[in-house]
Amino acid sequence: HLGSAHGLDQAEINRLAASCTLAGGDIRNVVLLAAVLAKSEDRPIRFDDIRAGLAIEYRKLAKALPPDLAG
Fold first, then answer.
1. For residue 4, which phi and psi values (nearest 5 degrees)?
2. Where are the strands (E) in the chain, listed by range?
3. φ/ψ bin of 62: left (φ > 0), alpha (ψ from -120 to 50), beta (otherwise)
4. Contact 31, 52 (CB under 8 A)
5. Residue 15 contacts by C-beta under 8 Å, 6 or more apart in sequence?
6. Is the separation of the CB atoms in 1 and 28 below 8 Å?
7. In whole angstroms, what is the distance from residue 54 CA to residue 71 CA?
């Protein structure tokens, strides 16, 4: 879902993969929100954009954001 137009490094992608327990549709929602945030500032998607999307998506699902992504 992330594509190639992002500024995340492999360590950040691995961190996300190891920490998140979301279904495909939820991941898509996270990436779409991150893309909107990045586009509003005319830049590539950053880790903070993904983290913001995750916080919203986990909240919608009434789940806690994984602790290692919370801050």
1. -105, -10
2. none
3. left
4. no
5. 68, 69
6. yes
7. 12
Residue 6 main-chain phi, psi, to 5 deg: -145, 165
- Torsion angles phi and psi, residue 49, rounded to 5: -65, -45
For the whole model, what pTM was predicted?
0.88
Q: Which residue has the tokens 């806690």?
A: 64
Q: What is the mean pLDDT of each run of 10 residues along the chain (71 residues)?
A: 84 91 93 94 95 95 90 67
Q: What is the pLDDT of residue 70?
A: 79
Q: Which of helix, strand or coil describes residue 3?
A: coil
Which of 14-31 are b and which e, b meaning 16 or more Cβ less than 10 Å from the residue's Cβ?
Answer: ebbeeebebeeebbebbb
